[in-house]
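Field reference: "sequence" (input) and "structure" (output). Example, Chitin deacetylase:
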Amino acid sequence: MHLHRLLIILALQVGLSYSCLDLRTVHQTVVVLEEPATIQGQPQPESIQTSVPNPFYEQSVSANGEDQSEGVHLRLRAISGVTKQLDYKCGPKWGKCPSGTCCSGAGRPSHAPCLMVRVTYMVWIPGFCGTTKAHCRSPECMIDFGNCDSNKAPKGPPTKEILRPHIGQVPYGPQQIRSCTVPGTIAFTFDDGPTRYTGDLLDLLDRYEAPATFFITGINNGKGAIDDPSLPWAELIERMTLSGHQIASHTWSHEDLSKVTSQQRHEQMLKNEVAIRNIMGSFPTYMRPPYSSCIPGSGCPEDLGDLGYHITLYDIDTDDYKNDSPYLIQLSKDIFDRALSTGSPATKSWLVIAHDAHEQTVHNLTEHMLETSGRLGYRPVTVGDCLRDPRDNWYRRDVRWSGHMNKSKIPKKGPKKFNIAQQISADGTCGANYTCLGSPFGLCCGSMNLCGNSTTHCGFGCKKEAGYCAVQMPSNGDAWDPDFSEGRSGKSEADSSVRSVRTAAVTSLVLALIVALWI
């Protein structure tokens, strides 16, 4: 066989092989084929396994829809060793974790096309059992298959027995609110906080004297409970109320309320009530369902109505969660500008959704929205005000609890590595006896001993003893989007690896054709 034919065959084989592999779960690993194990079987502690159906044959499915073939298993042995936390698979195809451990977020199918072959196959990626923050952080942690942050409960008496009359003219669930009613007003709302960026957002709103509404999540994204006195969140929420902003609920751990049971829905709302009550002495009557998902027929609208909540959506979705980049945030600005250009403040009002969990929203988009809406004649207000709802109707008071009134009993925020009391940074530097918590320069102490709120300050190299160090921010927002409804994880380096591998496959094919033409 001629050399050029061998080269063509080799390039085709490499291209087809790479295009049919989905390496999203592989990072510096060696792949070894293994015979399938039973679904109930657990992997050996020294290895990690991922179940991948064979892309080259169709799975047989019984009449009741059960999978009758398990395909091929890939054993992934990490070159640098395997973390002992990842001992057991979990999820819909693998079952629950051992008691006391969390099931990390995965276990959902992903669909991958095979380049040059008309095959689309489904890859089930398992969750793994463990106890690290990465395993237990909600909402990624699978609540039906292990322990999660969402299973934690705030301290204090429950709010379940507090009366919940439907007072005022604003509709309660199962009806949903999608717009304001007072012409000339614009209600800016921010979901998923408080986060490391929320302090900067409050500074900005103070500067513009702009009231807003914060839909608070209790324990999402591994940030800890909002009423934990060792964290900065309670003081930020107190500042919101003192500044005239409205507090609303966004559930305890950001679960999709259309996909959980009625009992789980009640827990999501009641736990968040207790945590907010622990801070304010009362809890909200307004809420927004995570992912804006409260589908009729799921029981969600009725449950929220029974709990006495106004289900609050929006009529401008900024898509800021998709555009959290200096190069993309202009897309969100354009969405906002186009919406406002369709109406006049003489007759129109707006209800806007954004997220204080994203840096570009806080440091870029929000000021643009404030300036643009003000220039056009709109007045920023809270959701309650844009609906003509008296402020007494925004909250339900718990007479048994006064909130965090006695500040002297709250321990100083941040880990106490030193016996000497830390001082708040006055010049933006941090470390040793100076903390960023409470400073105007940001919450996080970066590797260069400077305070700030950017990823550089709060991410790798962040000094926990001198400030807050952030966990990963959510990639998805709360606008209902079919492209994001099944999975909530965002872009990662692994995604770019898949693109690189498939690009290499195409390159191999092109090179083969060039060789053939040249010879």
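The chain has three domains: 3-58+69-151, 176-397, 413-477.
The chain is about 25% helix and 15% strand.
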